[in-house]
Amino acid sequence: MKGLVDKPSSSAPWSVRWRLVVLVWMALLIAAPSLFWREIPERDSATYALMTNEFAQGNYARAFHPSTPPLLVTIGGSLAHLVSDPFRANRIASILLFLLGIPGTFLLVKELAGARIANVAAVLYAFCPQILYLATSGGVDAGKLSLLPWLTWAGLHWYRRQAVAWGMAVGALGALISLARGEGIFFVIAVLCWYLIETARQKPFRYGSMGRSLTSLVGAVAVMLLLLYPWLSYQRSQTGLWITHPTQLRIYAWLAVHNHWQQEMIVDNNAMEITATAEPASPSTALATTQTKLSTPKGSPDPSVSRDVSPTVPPAESVDQRDNRKNVPWFKNLEKVAKGAFIPYLVLAVGGFVWRRSKDMPLRKRGGSLPLFLIALNLAIFYPTNIMAPRYVSATIPLFLHLSATGVLACETTLQRWSFFTRRRLRLAAVAGIVILALLSQTQLDLFMPPHKRGEQLALMRLGNWIRQHAHEFPAYGTLPSLSFYHNGRVPIMLETDGRLRYYARTDGLVLFSFYRYRPSQITTICRQGKVSVVAYDERMEALCPGFGQYWRNDPSYVPVNLGQEKAKIPESSPVLLCFQADGGTPR
To answer: How far apart are CA 80 and CA 119, in angstroms?
Structure first.
């Protein structure tokens, strides 16, 4: 156990603070390149950026949505006044949240395993590629990543001190994490339950202690509800129930409680049927057809007229997914868990756990059961679903870094038994490991993207910018109400298979989901009921709707858009822009 037990430190607390400050600056330097060389958002990040754009422009009614926690949008929208790009503003916000997690991780691990292991854990947090991916993606996971260690640390202090002030701190942090991620409220409830269970297990049992515990528990809940009240009120106005996220409506459904959450209606019950009556046509073939200048049909409705129209939205957003969710890819999800937890850290954590057990250092002795309990809760929420993603697991990495850091120091203690591994060589190896982690964290930059993929993304960016510049030339059939899926209420409305194109165009749109198949006539129905003006036809849309490439060329409702001089800058494999004219033809 030599090397793992904290030695009395003669250094002042300021030395620890300066160490953390230096570590924060180093982490900032590693994350900063993403602000300049990561311009391509992912699908979810593109939606958050659209919301941030509305916030920055003062359109608060369209800046929020019940399905999206408001913390990132609020911070990013406030920063968007300083930077012109809303996606960059969100990345700055997620980086700031990531940096906030460094002292939180240090304090949590110090509480669990001592200051020396906490120093190592803070370094592991700051240089972890999976964590830096969350920090630079401009997504909502960065809030959960940074607030979970703070919430866990406050929960441990609350249990040990039984003080009302610490209970109120847990309530405040619980409110923040509930505003950062939809499932955040469940982690707060888990901490409250853990606190009650551990308090009841205390021996000898004392009624006075239980009284103080219940008082602090009431304080925690009161502070949390007070801070959450504005968001709860907004959710009630949208759904009719007191919730923090629409996924909690299922709980009310089990209790047979009615709500007025407006779901998009299904256009066609046969949305998943496939017809193969026409041969697929590639986008390049379609682009070779005669290009017609974009024209606005006479008598097009005013863009502002649409709120009194039936809120029917296409099956791309509304087809019931419950049957799909029954097909859970269990083994694939296991692979995603390992990837999200970052396998080197996971191996070190297993080693650290075995080491602690061999040295008679049980986790429960210092409250180590709480972080593991929260990790198990996170897996219980996401693992048995078909929406599992590695980033959902990456947000809980700080909760097992006390074991990973123990594994690092256990390796150091073991290697010191051989004369070859001198202290100097071990330090050089540690520095080399940190450099490797820092380099791995940069692989998410656009610079390291395969050339063909980057070309496709640049083409999407050019197309989106072109649509933004010519938005007034497209027909406007109205705006979409923001119901169970987010819509920013802008025109023209676009139908696409990649959510990023509408972000570049700063417009609204509908996205065809990859797990459904459509008939060509259904695309026309989608365009009519979804008030679509622009269709971005590409190979992915042809795969989702076989035969649509032939169909649109024979339907006068679809008119190829003349890109003019911009056409020469865009590869032929890029999406073909089609102007949908609602009065130009009839669905077949």
So the answer is: 34
